[in-house]
Amino acid sequence: xxxxxxxxxxxxxxxxxxxxxxxxxxxxxxxxxxxxxxxxxxxxxxxxxxxxxxxxxxxxxxxxxxxxxxxxxxxxxxxxxxxxxxxxxxxxxxxxxxxxxxxxxxxxxxxxxxxxxxxxxxxxxxxxxxxxxxxxxxxxxxx
Amino acid sequence: xxxxxxxxxxxxxxxxxxxxxxxxxxxxxxxxxxxxxxxxxxxxxxxxxxxxxxxxxxxxxxxxxxxxxxxxxxxxxxxxxxxxxxxxxxxxxxxxxxxxxxxxxxxxxxxxxxxxxxxxxxxxxxxxxxxxxxxxxxxxxxxxxxxxxxxxxxxxxxxxxxxxxxxxxxxxxxxxxxxxxxxxxxxxxxxxxxxxxxxxxxxxxxxxxxxxxxxxxxxxxxxxxxxxxxxxxxxxxxxxxxxxxxxxxxxxxxxxxxxxxxxxxxxxxxxxxxxxxxxxxxxxxxxxxxxxxxxxxxxxxxxxxxxxxxxxxxxxxxxxxxxxxxxxxxxxxxxxxxxxxxxxxxxxxxxxxxxxxxxxxxxxxxxxxxxxxxxxxxxxxxxxxx
Lengths: 143, 386
Prior knowledge:
heterodimer; A: alpha/beta; Rossmann fold; four-stranded parallel β-sheet; 4 helices; 4 strands; globular; B: alpha/beta
């Protein structure tokens, strides 16, 4: 990288087992790269990802958290992604009310074949978090 | 249209006479309400039949010791009640009962919900450590006004002070020592009220009109008050620094969770082994943050709990009564609940028909919480050119 002191964010990428990880497989098949500071994290369904885990990541070291799952209507479990959308809506509302940067959490659907879309999303979110700067909560010792 | 009758009787004595009467007539088999303890400084709930109706029972106690919804949950979680039981609940307790019924924690079969125009309550610790006789007098004198001076945050910021949604409502607002109105809105309530001998009041129409007028005025006042209180509170907690300052006194007792009627999970994540981290984990976190407040995961507990139940928060204030450190936790949940409930356009405890936001989904909704994909990202193009 060009600058040694450049801020490299710590990002967790929650991917559902059916579409999100499928997207990353497609990206791999096309030899597409995404930033190395993004840590993929597989869950069976985005609807199974309790926002408490997102909170825990944000309080304990992550600068951003992004969630990708099946497009609406495509969920392997029918309504898991709708549940995820509602849960993340609630989470972002809470973070907004408390002044804890709701912009550090993103939700974007990525289908199984959309490797390019996954890579674009990873880069876009990485740039977005770089612009926001380090998460003030991760260095709070009293959290 | 609601059925309305007028009952003669002075204040709480009149209300107790009403319960004794319906018990004696066999309209209900038992009644569940708080009664003063022998020492006279607190209240406990009792399930009473007609022979055991306690002299010290108090349908409208000046404190909320145990949230009534917790009592009813305890009683009917494992199955319905087989005999007709009337339960006297504050409006906030009633809302929690409705929430818990939707969450399948309470079975309302054979249960008759009775509520009233609530003046509020004293903070639990104030009442227990103060002079109860003068507290009681002051409270009883505001029985017909549906508001009184208290330092209990949840009551100061309360704007849902009527027993709307109950089977039977005791309409105390605007009543006098002559008597009070009692109204039934559900089939269960109407059936019971049919057999109650109401005194014929010539002026029942004017009574209703008087109450409606008072209520309209009070409602507007309380709505505005709630908004200002919550807005002002938001300024004091906004941002990580302020928020952590508010929570800095927390002693991790989790009393707020235990007292909360909505937090019904028997296997709570925050009590689970998932948060029992080892020395290794805690030392790592401490070295990353240059220090760690112990025990850790303070903010995770509070914000996580908000995330689990703020949508159903009925602003009863049981959490704050239970807090040994007097953290304004009920305002915190009311504030967060106000926003999360608005997003889902949901009023907790308002009606049994309104579905809880996490059981209904639509294909197209909450688009604003998605990050939209518009075009190929420039950095991705630069990195992946071959």
